[in-house]
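Hi F.,

I've been meaning to write this up properly since the lab meeting, where we talked about keeping a consistent format for the predictions we share between groups. The idea is simple: the sequence comes first, exactly as it goes in, then the structure tokens exactly as they come out, then a line or two of notes. No screenshots and no reformatting. I'm using this chain as the first example so we have something concrete to point to.
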Amino acid sequence: MDHIIKMLQNEIKIPLKEKLIVSVSGGADSMFLLSILKDSGYKLEVVHFNHMLRDQSKIEADLVRTYCEQHHISFHYYLIEIGEGNFHHQAHHLRLHYLKDTAKITKAKYILTAHHLDDLLENILIKLTRGSNLLGYAGMQLNHTIKGLTFVKPLLYTSKEEILTYIKENNIPYLNDESNDLDFYMRNRYRHTIVPIMKQENPKLLNQAAQYHKQISLAFKFIRKTTIQTLNGGTTIDLNIYKSLDEVIQEDIIAYLIEKKNLNLSFDLIQKIKLLLLQDKPNLTYPLSSHYYVVKAYDQAFIKRINTPKNIKIQVSEGENKLANKDNFTFLTNSNTHTEDLEKLCYNKLAFPLWLRHRENGDKLAYKFGHKKLKDLLIDKKIPMEKRDALWVLTDNDNQILWVQDLYTNQMLGDKHCIYFQLKELNHA
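Output, unedited:
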């Protein structure tokens, strides 16, 4: 099995003597992986999880611990306690959390799991059944890096048959997980019913799966590289450019932005968002979750976190006023400061005190020609919808609009008196 070690060195580019976190359950696959790594020259940190669901769990933990002690390998043991809800989903996230935690403690950069070629085939079939994007249809990635941690599946092109043969020939201890025999789980149903029929049709099915995976993965890497170049490494879509792109790039741009937020992704979702982005309407939104939505704002589109709007109304005092979003609003009835640094509003009569708020339905602005709805001004100025609700509006006590941030100052109030004000915005990125 030297080819697996060479693949780690030459393809994944992991130097010998590098520290590796290895997830080991005690089953044949992970014990096989551990056995071929133990004399490779890599420094190993074994992580074992006890999900406390089966009587056999304690025996598995003892098996892995004993093997590590015999071969002088560091052993990390975690209990996985799951409450109500989706067990597999919660367990996956807890395992990932502990693996990352172990990597941080041990200062390791690589996390290895024992997924193999049969797992890859099952994963491809499941993804085809449920629907996915191009990366999902590839089944699994041989390696991927997130925030400085590289996750590797060294056995991805090694079959279960090869693993069991090696295990038997080299007397490597392992335990069978009896839950693998239960057709209650979707993966097991594929493993016990669909895959055997497919193998009867083509004895080289696993080789075909490996070739399919490699071809799809290469295509995906090229498309994703183009996606990132098109976005200039950012997260905002220029819709003028977007409309001219090939469909496969259009769809991957959407997938890429959704993946960056760790949100659920499906082919149908991508199609719905693509149609939204290609519409002529200037301001549109589409919910992705309870926390995020897609925003189309004229010539741009992006994913934004949902902030629940609040009915904010702040009485303006002389001097500096701290606003709810941490901006500062300075208000003066007399000013020795150069008027270029402050906005100036003149009037004959105002109803004091003054108030700062956000826009409301029915807001109207006064001009020489009459009145105009604030809503119409925002449309004329092509102000994105998500920015409209954040604009500050200054009114007097009779709710007469005096000023709208960056857009309007009421010049129909007279010239006997003047007030001065300035909004200082902080960086809210």
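Notes:
The chain has 14 helices and 21 strands.
The mean pLDDT is 90.

If this format works for you, I'll send the rest the same way.

G.
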